[in-house]
Amino acid sequence: MKYKVMKKQKNSRKCIVCGMKNDLGLKASFYELENGELAAIFTPIEEHQSYPGRLHGGVAGAILDETIGRAINITDEDVWGVTVELNLKYHKPVALNEQLRVVGRITRDTRRLFEGTGEILLKNGDIAVSASGKYMKLPLSQIADFNEDTEEWRVLPSDEDPAEIEV
Ligand SMILES: CCCCCCCCCCCC(=O)SCCNC(=O)CCNC(=O)[C@H](O)C(C)(C)COP(=O)(O)OP(=O)(O)OC[C@H]1O[C@@H](n2cnc3c(N)ncnc32)[C@H](O)[C@@H]1OP(=O)(O)O
């Protein structure tokens, strides 16, 4: 199903997944959808391979980790969390140099923890990798010395931002 993009989330400077000034990073963009899920879009490059031509499973885990971890911000922009568990299932190989869609959602939200699931989708809609994760909520000051200005933590509008995404 295609869903309307309601909001683009912020990117950062050096995060391996969302850092726009990390030359080896995924430079993923995150979009909040009208159905309450979060979609990520990124294009893996050669540096993200395991076997030649195939996305590294750890990199697949990284994008799923962050997509689920950010899905909580759809309902509360100020919640931060650290991953305490991440389970992955690799169903199909993921090729490089092709744009990928990732989708994540929150399945449980308590005072201290939240949980969610997510999938990396191939161009034809097949699920290549699926994940479930658990996160502990923490004040940002307990996670990192994070200055939003120096970390360039902001929404970066782009002409390539989609109006809707099929997930
Ligand atoms: C650039 C910006 C991008 C922004 C993008 C944002 C997206 C986020 C996605 C990426 C997130 C990451 O990769 S984060 C990076 C990877 N993850 C981490 O680095 C986390 C490393 N782990 C830790 O720092 C620590 O284990 C903590 C802080 C999570 C917990 O430490 P602690 O508080 O000393 O631990 P402990 O006493 O054992 O546990 C506290 C309580 O939590 C419970 N607890 C602990 N672990 C679990 C668990 N897996 N499942 C259930 N419950 C648990 C315990 O039972 C206990 O309950 P009780 O006995 O008190 O009842």
TrEMBL record:
Keywords: Apoptosis, Cell membrane, Cell projection, Cytoplasm, Fatty acid metabolism, Hydrolase, Lipid metabolism, Membrane, Transit peptide. Gene3D superfamilies: Hotdog Thioesterase (3.10.129.10). It is a peripheral membrane protein. InterPro entries: HotDog_dom_sf, THEM4/THEM5_acyl-CoA_thioest, Thioestr_dom. SUPFAM superfamilies: Thioesterase/thiol ester dehydrase-isomerase. It catalyses: decanoyl-CoA + H2O = decanoate + CoA + H(+); tetradecanoyl-CoA + H2O = tetradecanoate + CoA + H(+); dodecanoyl-CoA + H2O = dodecanoate + CoA + H(+); (9Z)-octadecenoyl-CoA + H2O = (9Z)-octadecenoate + CoA + H(+). Its main location: membrane. GO terms for biological process: fatty acid metabolic process. Pfam families: 4HBT. GO terms for cellular component: cytoplasm; membrane. GO terms for molecular function: hydrolase activity. Its EC number is 3.1.2.2. Residues 53-125 form the Thioesterase domain. It is found in: Cell projection, Ruffle membrane; Cytoplasm; Membrane. Belongs to the THEM4/THEM5 thioesterase family. This is Acyl-coenzyme A thioesterase THEM4. It comes from Oxobacter pfennigii.
